[in-house]
Write a structure and sequence with these properties.
Blueprint lengths: L53 E5 L10 E7 L9 E7 L2 E4 L24 E2 L4 E3 L5 H21 L3 E5 L15 H17 L3 E5 L15 E5 L9 H8 L3 E5 L2 H7 L7 E5 L13 E2 L3
Parallel strand pairs: 1-2, 2-3, 3-7, 7-8, 8-9, 9-10, 10-11
Antiparallel strand pairs: 4-6, 5-6, 11-12
């Protein structure tokens, strides 16, 4: 299993202003012939996650969803939860952990970002190498490999896509080598491919670029720790995505703040390792 643990925000996003209209999502699977993959900015025909629905974040391992859950996010290596709206997680901007399947050793060296000394740059918080999306040729080669995972998501019957680490360009270790323009050019490639496979595509974190979500082909938000007292970003996501947002918190304080929007969006508190139910340290809470 290619497990990638949940992300903790590394930068505080600037406030964003435009309010987006809220609309209810539906549970029916998206049709196989969705928006053409040639245009990331086209409106997708894929069904979005139902708003204000019970949500469970299971990227650390699949288990039977708790009662009341209607939306689940699972790793692309897992199977969808029967009868629910399923979001497929892919680690799109970084490799898997060192020593795990999909880690740096499983990637061509020229597709890994390097420092001036020629050493591969590692996100030390997660022991993952950063993918080099700085040129068109490299983006195309990387996207081809990630697209194969997206194809797997579609073939298994997932409804939507969660491409993680859109915000890699904000990591201190990147030192400006990857820019937000690189990130947006690349995410448009992935979202176009996802739409072409009938999948809705979520924006993972990266509140700094929330105002560009339509141009980037991103249909809804999946935000970690927007309620963290150090960030206070939940209002920014709601301003841009309306009710089409899913909030994931890891602390009681963050959960309290995120639950201020709990009558509009999906909110859940999980343990930071996103452990399967039954394992020591497992946490799952919902708003009162």
């Amino acid at each position: 299993m290619s497990l990638n643990r949940s992300r903790i925000r590394t930068t505080v996003g600037a406030a964003v202003a435009c309010a987006a209209a809220a609309a209810a999502g539906v549970l029916a699977p998206a049709p196989a012939s969705a928006t053409s993959a040639t245009s990331a900015t086209s409106a997708t025909s894929a069904a979005l996650p139902p708003v204000h629905a019970g949500f469970d974040y299971q990227i650390g391992g699949a288990y039977t969803p708790p009662s009341g859950v209607r939306v689940v996010s699972r790793d692309h290596s897992a199977s969808p939860a029967p009868g629910l709206y399923n979001i497929c997680y892919v680690n799109a901007f970084q490799t898997q952990k060192i020593g795990q399947p999909g880690g740096p050793d499983d990637w061509p060296s020229d597709l890994l970002l390097k420092n001036d000394a020629g050493d591969v740059i590692i996100d030390t918080d997660w022991d993952e190498a950063i993918l080099d999306i700085t040129t068109e040729k490299k983006r195309e080669a990387i996207a081809k490999r990630i697209d194969a995972q997206i194809d797997e998501c579609a073939a298994k019957g997932f409804n939507a896509l969660e491409p993680d680490n859109f915000d890699t360009f904000t990591r201190d270790v990147v030192e400006g080598r990857i820019t937000e323009d690189h990130a947006q050019t690349y995410i448009r490639m992935l979202s176009a491919h996802g739409h072409g496979k009938g999948l809705a595509v979520g924006q993972k974190n990266t509140v700094e670029l929330a105002g560009n979500h339509a141009a980037n082909g991103l249909d809804f938000a999946i935000a970690e720790e927007c309620g963290n007292p150090d960030y206070h970003e939940c209002a920014d996501y709601v301003a841009e995505f309306g009710d089409h947002a899913i909030f994931i918190e890891y602390t009681n304080a963050g959960m309290k703040n995120a639950c201020e929007y709990g009558d509009r969006v999906s909110v859940v508190q999980r343990d930071r390792d996103v452990l399967p139910k039954g394992e020591d340290g497992y946490v799952r809470k919902t708003c009162p």
